[in-house]
Amino acid sequence: MPLGILLVLVIGGIAGITLMMHLAGKSRVTQLTPDVAKAAWLRHVPGDKVVDVTITNDGHTALIRTPAGNGLVWSFGADTVARHLQDFDWMDHPKGFEVRFHDFGTPRVLIHLDDTERQHWHNLMEPA
Amino acid sequence: MTDQVTFPDAVQWAVPFFIAAILAEFLWIAVKGKGGRYETRDAVTSLIMGAGNIASGLLLGFIAYAFFMWLWQITPLDLGTSIPVIVLCFVLDDLRYYWVHRFGHRIRWVWASHVNHHSSQHYNLTTALRQTWTYTFTFMMVVRAPLILLGFHPAMVLFVGGLNLIYQFWIHTEAIGKMPRWFEAVMNTPSHHRVHHGRNARYLDCNYAGAFIIWDKMFGTFVPEQEDDRVDFGLVHNIGTFNPLRVAFHEWVGIWRDASQPGLTLRQRLAYCFAPPGYSHDGSRDNSQQIKAKHIALHPEDRGTPGFEHFRADLPKSQAEQA
């Protein structure tokens, strides 16, 4: 196939499919509830015990407390990703906190926090 | 020796079909309200990975082709290009695919290339296009050497490989349940391949087939889809990025970080490169067998069922895990 036609097909195909999906509402992000977040954590760590779940007001991130330590579950498109809070850095961000994992495949997550929850999450992330 | 043999690049010619089929599956799911899921960024990432795969083939394909042509020069055999020879080449190349694919799940160096195909938590026709950019660096092209030395022309071998990839496109769907029984018995199908994409303990490291599922049945790696264990798609540890560069290279970076950490023996460094995924020198990670063993510890009722056959139901726990 001539390279020019191949390029038009590939670029046009990707652009068209992207637009169609977005207009069809397929860009919506999963909303976490305590049950959804707990199920997502147990999907990641089968057999673990969840002591407590704290969800951000925007419903996109949850802090999971377990006997072995804390973890995060966050919305990832229509799905979720979960990680133990090990080998990471976190810092203030204008929109909340930014957590940086030392993992090329899961580099960072931005926890959106409003003013009413920022201090509480600060305490959760850095217990005394 | 036939040098002037040309075959079309089947994958490039299939691009319009890929686009049309994705649109059809998307509309089917929208109309029926079942049969799979689509998410914009996931699909876009898969499509860009597919485009990158074609680009990497254009840029790096000459390496494998030069190697194949060198083999073609030294072999005294030439089977020609008749239809029966092309069919035989397709079947034997599918056997080659089975082993390369199996190596791709059991050798971390090869997994680093293949992992991106499994990195979506979705399973739809765009997932089929989430292909590697780094296959050349696995050196798995050597597994095709016997075919060429047997007298199959390199252009034909690459042609049937393209047909194999096109065959595998349509099986990446949840819109099709089961095919007729005779077809499920011989061919790779959406049901068999859904199992291959599962992150459930039961479904790890099985159903490596390309076109013919008979290879898995012959070599003991076949696991049928279970109605009571719905496939959960993705990786054991799902990645948290839609960035195609990170998707393409994250496992290579992981290998480098693991193998270059201070204080390891040479054997441990090599194990981080070539042992099955999940290896760690300090036992901090689980490979697929350890994940299955942990599952059986939590769910002893699954002992001896498909995917857990080597945890035999009639053996005490410790003996079964050693078996």
Parts with pLDDT < 50 across at least 5 consecutive residues of chain A: none
Please give the count of helices of chain A: 3
The value of Rg of chain A in angstroms is: 18 Å
* N- and C-termini, Cα separation of chain A: 64 Å
What proportion strand of chain A? 25-35%
* End-to-end Cα distance of chain B: 50 Å
Helix percent of chain A reads 25-40%
Secondary structural class of chain A: alpha+beta
Secondary-structure-based class of chain B equals: mainly alpha
Amount of helix of chain B: 40-55%
Low-confidence stretches of chain B: 319-323
Order of helices and strands of chain B: HHHHHHHHHHHHHHH
Query: Number of DSSP strands of chain B?
Result: 0
Shape type of chain A: elongated
How would you describe what is shown here?
The complex is a heterodimer of chains A (128) and B (323). Helices cover 34% and strands 32% of the residues of chain A. Chain A has 3 helices and 7 strands. Chain A has helices at 3-23, 34-44, 115-125; strands at 52-55, 61-66, 69-76, 79-84, 88-93, 96-101, 108-112. In chain A, strands 1-2-3-4 form a 4-stranded antiparallel β-sheet, with helices on one face. Chain A has a 3-stranded antiparallel β-sheet with strand order 5-6-7, with no helix packed on it. The longest helix of chain A has 21 residues, at 3-23. Chain A is elongated and about 60 Å long. The relative contact order of chain A is 0.13. The mean pLDDT of chain A is 94. Chain B has 323 residues and is an all-alpha fold. Among the domains of chain B are: 10-177, no CATH class; 249-276, no CATH class. Classes of the chains: A alpha+beta (128), B mainly alpha (323). The interface between A and B is large, with 34 and 46 residues.
